[in-house]
Amino acid sequence: MLGKRSFGEKIFDGANIVFLILLVVATLYPCLYVLLASISDPAEVAAAQGLLFIPDKLQLGSYALAFSNPNIITGYVNTIIYVGLGTALNILMTLLGAYGLSRKYLYGRNLFMFIIVFTMFFSGGLIPMYLTFKALGFYNNLWAMIVPYAINAFYLIILRTFFQSIPDSLEESAKIDGANDFVILFRIMVPLALPAMAVVTLYYAVDNWNSYLRGVMFLQDRSLYPIQVILREILIQNVVSAQNGDITSEVAENVKYATIVIATLPILCVYPFLQRYFVKGAMIGAVKG
Amino acid sequence: MLREVRLTGRLPVTARPEWKGDAAVRTMTGKAANVATASKAKESTLRSYAGFLRKELRKNKYIYLMLLPVMLYFVVFSYFPMVGLALAFKDYSLKYGLIGNILEAPYVGLKHFEAFFAGVAFKQVVVNTILLSVYGIIFAFPAPIVLALLLNELRVKWFKSMVQSITYMPHFISLVVISGMIIDLTSINGLINTIIDALGGSKIMFLLEPAWFRTIFITSDIWQHIGWGSIIYLAALSGIDAEMYEAAVMDGAGRWRQLLNITLPSLLPTIMILLILRIGQMLNIGVEKIILLYQPMTYETADVISSYVFRQGILNLQISYTTAVGLFNAVINFALLVLANWLSKKTTQSSLW
Amino acid sequence: MLNISTEKKKWSTLGIVLLASTVALGGCSTGGETKPETEPAATGNGQAEAAVDAPEPVKEGYPIATADQPLTLKVWAPADNILKYYKDYGEVLAFQEMEKATGVKIEWIHPSAGQLQEPFNLMVASRDLPDVIIYPWGNTSFLPGGAQKYVQDGVIIPLSEYIDYAPDYAKVLEDYPEIKKRVTDDDGEMNYISLMTPELTMRTYNGFMIRQDWLDKLSLPMPRSTDDLYNVLKAFQDNDMNGNGKKDEYFSSTGMDKGILGIEKLLYPFGATAGNDAFIQSGGKVIYSPMQPEFKEGVAYLNKLYQEGLLDPEYMLNDNTKLQQKYTNGTVSVSYSSAGRIASWQPGLKEVDADATLSPIPSLTGPDGSGYWLEANTANITNPGVSLAITTANKFPAETMRWWNWVFTEAGKTAFNYGKEGVTFEIVDGKPQFTEMITNDSQGRTQNEMLSLTAPAVGLPTLNELEATRLQKSEAEWNAFETWGNNMLDNSRIMPPVMFNDSELDVMTSKKPAIDDYQKQMLDKFITGRTSLDAWETEFVPQLKKLGIDEVTAAYQTALDRYNQR
Questions:
Q1: For the packed helices A249-275 and A7-39, what is the interaxial angle rounded to 10 degrees?
Q2: In chain B, whose CA is at the least distance from the CA of C322?
Q3: pLDDT at position C321, please?
Q4: Which of C20 and A248 is assigned the larger pLDDT?
Q5: pLDDT of C11 over the 90 cut
Q6: Fold for domain C57-200+381-464?
Q7: CATH, range A62-275
Q8: How many beta-carbon pairs under 8 angstroms link A with B?
Q9: Are C149 and C137 in contact (CB under 8 A)?
Q10: Mutation to test the A interface, candidates C324, C443, C469, most A Cβ within 10 Å
């Protein structure tokens, strides 16, 4: 924040930093625990009873078990494709919808909003969805994972809120200069709404990455399975192995942690790239133009 | 003005009208004007309404074009399957497929709803659900906002970045693992009780006491999601014009004033929209976390609609029953949303429609 | 002025184009054929006509199909065990042998590992039926109305009229009337074929387990009654067997709904039980166990253990994994368990404590030396959770029965239980032994894994042979099976898997969930002492009656009567 810091403000700053450090510790704890548990001996994990511990011996057995499943590579590749294509479609559709619905002068705007919000509450259920999508040809192929999930109403509303906060004068002056709505959207509005777009991109990317139900319901070919389905299978198979006595339950438990790390690490790498869009002052100068 | 109109096919901004609704009389100056008054005959009103529609479509044709695939998507992928809601009023039978069921299965009216309402624990689970949601709104909803504001106050960039990057991570850990941790931490020999013991208090078996359930549920919620939830507020904060702050400082405003007069009002639309949507989730307490943390002795505070229906379903597998309960939830939730939307519109001018 | 109609045309064209492209994009690479590909079956006189006009299908003999008259069946089956390594069951040795012998080709459809009900429900709802479905047809908690409902609703067909085409299977039913009773419904129809485990010691995979090494260290004999157990638990604690200075060597269990090793099992020695399956029967009469004085006795015992700190104070929060961790940490000494776990939990324990040994407790009786065994699984001479049914979409039901019948022929039994001689097993001293391929796989796969990839009798509706089961299990595991099997207490009180008709189901669905919830809450409250046991008479039983237990009991009674008349 700008301005001189008084003494009171310095106290506040100090307290703020302390509080945030505590928060970091509290939120880092579970992540470290999961990481440690995945590379530690199961007996030590049992002994630790939830507390962080320094492992005596490190072992990569749980990862070995997880990766011993040959389907994991195809799973990764498939998911990367689904996330890439899917998120691109998501952003495009959501942009169009969010911008269009943010124009206050649009006749029917409220009706459209009502129609969209209504779908957030009322759904026919899994079976009608399954039958509809299947009848349209969205079954057992790449598009089944992408097209039926093209728009999330919640995210559309968020993006719309951001578009609404951009001053009208920008649009007006652009129109006076002869620009049509598409040009305005892509040349002017999008650059201004980058923080919101980054957030919504992140949301969609994470949703696509985590998608499990879609894969199980609409894919029959194992070669099309995304990573989450494979990871769930790995977990189940290890639980069964444990029941059969092939591996101990604790090892099966550790595989659970390993699968979390495997599933989450890639997404954690995406966030830092998007973080730079949350930079203050992206709007400066635009209004003046 | 004429030249502008010919070039762009549009009126300059100042001259463009706003349609205010059926009952109001629309008046306009300028070339592209059609006047309809309430006193005209119905047929010509209809015709002029159609004309009005055509004008609007033509005027904003690109916007409507943008919305076309979007609305199409919702119609095809959300509204088509919605016919399944009819199953809530029928006795689902395996004899027919889905369409067969909708058309031919016996109509039973409100039978499934009555079964739900008549359940012994109905009142209890609804109350528990609402209480958990309300506590969530009071405590868990503001938490990410507060975090975003605190982060905003930081001047050291790398620290801010680090805090952001770490605090959002627990969001990705699966509920099964988080619940396991909660059980460990709150167990009789767990971390929390050890601290209590060290401070001289008496140990509490947290997850065995109905009185503690809500606290644990909400607190762990905040713990897991505060970082992820703050992302959107940070994005909103980054969009605030820095010049406003400069001006405020020149007027002698301190940080607190700046917060009240600039930051919060700028965040208000985002906050209100998210709040409205959250109120629309009032009856949706997810079943997974509840099932992992509860056990029969804590049913009286922990049992919510979703977990109750889950246990019923272990015996039933009745598609009609679960559809009916889902519909009930949806109707109540939606009504609450409409109410929240209306209130917000009246007080803060932010609303969904 | 712009021409309105051309505008309109432009939009509608665009709209249609958009919609069409979406559908086309999705539609052009549609996978998943939905029609079963069956072709005319062989008949005795070599006609290759459509099956509809064919003369009476051949009753016996293999092969069923030949190159001239091929037959392909579409089969939906869970295959969690093999999906890690194989695409489908077609790669499994036993099925390859089956194809060689019968000539029938199979198109397998497997749901993703861990998914069972959802894919099944979707398949049935969309009426996208294969020829054969392997599913828990006999498990009434998956299918409350029983497989009967699916027959009535036109999903599967009854098998009784085709039994002639499966003579080897029919013989098994003759040899074991109890099996026949289990796969027949109340109307005398057989709707599915289940996995069969005729010998008792093949099914006794659950029982109590104890830290043998601690018993040995204190020179204590194996506890055989609940009084013995009490003394042993006390001795473990007084002697601080885990050496941490605290009295925390417990008897434990999982929470009733959190794992299958629940607290209600320790009521068995008293002849009582609890939880979602708390109905027992005595001489054909249905009894709700929690209303019996035996229940009160058992709960009083558990309460005593709890008050004296001998019972894990947080047992209701345990799941199976937590329970194992507590064993590893030495905070649990006795619990209910399974044979597989005795084998699989031991290595983890041994890492922490090299002397640690887990042993099965042969049986536990009540204080007077008598006891009952109420674990339903043990009585299951068939496993209803693994059953095969023929769908209404199947155009060759007779051939299908002949096909699956092969599993019960000598060749079939050998293939599914042992595999192929010379490849997966050898005869040594007149008895089969698994070869190195199974026991010592080059890729490090375990014996169980290798068997599921070659001779999967265990996971399919086959006849499991005692000798094969013995071979499959490790020594520790088989020892548990036999110990529990040979010391089985009176198990005549177990409620058989009855089937409910519609009116009984109505009573159950409206009343039983609330009764179960209440009973489970009160059980925990009684055990932990939060509610005094005096309330059993004054509050508990009356409240159960108020919730309608008598009507539910009556529903069970009529269902049991029908079962007994099969």
A1: 140
A2: B180
A3: 83
A4: A248
A5: no
A6: D-Maltodextrin-Binding Protein; domain 2 (3.40.190)
A7: 1.10.3720.10
A8: 282
A9: no
A10: C324
